[in-house]
Write a structure and sequence with these properties.
InterPro entries: P-loop_NTPase, Small_GTPase. This protein is 39% helix and 7% strand. It has 109 residues and is mainly alpha-helical. The protein has two domains: 51 residues; 30 residues. It has a two-stranded parallel sheet with strand order 1-2. The chain is rod-shaped.
Length: 109
């Protein structure tokens, strides 16, 4: 069993060297050795995620949560940006939010 601390990226990055060191010590071939990888401290990781930023487990290959992550960051950025008209808008520009009165004509054809 190879165990890493999911709150510490360096421990995850060390898995290969730990596996190689173990195989070297016991003189085993890594191709057929039954390894299992465990990510420990999942309870702490959830707590840390809540405190800092939104967290998504993603897979670009399987298209899991990638789009949702981009939507979340876009919404967050838009909330922080004040709404203001573009600098190039003319002063007499049409206000699309303002309802304009439509005059009905009695003329036929």
């Amino acid at each position: 069993m190879l165990v890493y601390d999911i709150t510490d990226a360096k421990s995850f990055e060390s898995l290969d060297s730990w596996r190689d060191e173990f195989l070297n010590q016991v003189g085993a071939d890594g191709k057929d050795f039954p390894f299992v990888v465990l990510g420990n401290k999942s309870d702490l990781a959830k707590t840390q995620r809540k405190k800092r930023h939104p967290f998504y487990e993603t897979s670009a290959k399987d298209k899991i949560n990638v789009e949702q992550a981009f939507i979340t960051v876009a919404k967050s950025a838009l909330k922080k940006e004040p709404v203001r008209p573009p600098p190039y808008a003319p002063k007499d520009a049409l206000d699309l939010k303002k309802k304009q009165e439509v005059k009905k004509s009695n003329d036929c054809c």
